[in-house]
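Ticket opened by: R.M.
Priority: normal
Category: complex prediction / small molecule

The reporter submitted a protein together with NDP and asked that the result be attached to this ticket for the collaborator who will pick it up next week. Submitted input follows.
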Amino acid sequence: MTQPSATTAARILDGKAIALEIQNEIRDEVAALVEQTGKRPKLAAVLVGDYPASQVYVRNKEMACKRVGMTSELIRLSAATTTEELEQLIERLNTDEETSGILVQLPLPKHIDAQRILDAIDWRKDVDAFHPYNVGLLSQGRPQFLPCTPYGVIQILYRSQIKTAGKKVCIIGRSDIVGKPLASMLVQRSSPIGPDWANATVTLAHSQTPNLAAVTSDADILIAAIGQPEFVKAEMVRPGATVIDVGINRLGERLVGDVDFESVKEVAGAITPVPGGVGPLTVTMLLNNTLIAARLKNGG
Ligand code: NDP
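Result attached by the on-call engineer:
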């Protein structure tokens, strides 16, 4: 008699459920802060132009604020806004007593100097953690704010009890938003959730990495942040490895990650889906940073 082949499909790491769990904790902390100070944390989100994906992201952020009891203000500006006009708005928000955190939705229209705008945000209100001062603090292992997507990845690992200490972690993608700060966090001696979710041996791969598959298949934890639909195939993954898919790509009507989920889940030990993996955590860590910013404003 022919036996069916024994495949052990990967454990699916449910980012949506983890995000809800953290949002419930944040909601309780917001309620306690309001009771203590009489002030409600507020996120100001700046949206320039009408890039469709940005509209969705900003709407999700507003809804998430509401869920945890924070207020939010969406400031919509026309695509014709100049760098100087946007800078003036940021200066006003920097000194606005009501505003705890400022978020400028990226990408900005091409004619705007995005670096100048991000640099203009007061680092105490920099809930995306893109300001050079916050990047520097992170690199020195004493962060004030942790960047949302990288910290979301670490929260998924933490809440799934997958430790990074002593593990070989390979990150594909070296952007300032995901790959680089995530590598910076994972090589530290500790993290806000303790040393078990730091202390990794990190390989940061990119488009110039030769023999990428040999590098990725050596990793205990493989994190893809590339922006190429279903790029990571089963043969690039070590059997039993944890695979975290940061990618969000539109493939026709479908939203897919940077990992070929169907084939990789047959070899991986654990894997995040897209959608419902890292995405919900990014929004949640933004709420966490807004709470930190509100506390900072109230003296710590
Ligand atoms: P970037 O385009 O800024 O960076 C992509 C990185 O991937 C670069 O370092 C690039 O290398 C590398 N890369 C591209 N092609 C290859 C390849 N063939 N082999 C190896 N490396 C390659 O992207 P982001 O970091 O901003 O975003 C990455 C993905 O994550 C996107 O799909 C984005 O939509 C998604 N994302 C998801 C978020 C979430 O909340 N889930 C949040 C932020 C982003 P090089 O530097 O050499 O060009």
